[in-house]
Amino acid sequence: MDEIIYDKVEDEKNSKIKELYWDIAFGLQEVDELKPSKYMIELSASHISGKKTYQQVKEEITTHYKKNKYNHNDDEEEADEVSVAIYEILSNKSFRFDYLTLKNYHQNYFVI
User: Fold this and answer.
1) Is 51 or 71 the better-scoring residue by pLDDT?
2) CA-to-CA distance for 2 and 5, rounded, in angstroms?
3) Which of 60, 65, 87, 88 is most buried by a 10 A CB count?
């Protein structure tokens, strides 16, 4: 069987698009009355300005909650982790806004 080679997905370069995706991700959390942590907001600002990649933001928020396993707000953790997932979905070039796609994402990312 031949090895399949995938192209690496490049981090979004346009700061306005990055800001829009983070705003959508944070805004969708408000539906469940969840707000991102100040730390997540700082990380997203670093990503928007180009100081951090999306992958760095994702790794840093994961590490943050592992280190502070018993000393954090559970609602903020949920909002932060789901916001990261939503950002990733929105930045995926194959994302389509239709019922089946959204249903599949919801089942895979957000159902506990």
Assistant:
1) 51
2) 9
3) 87
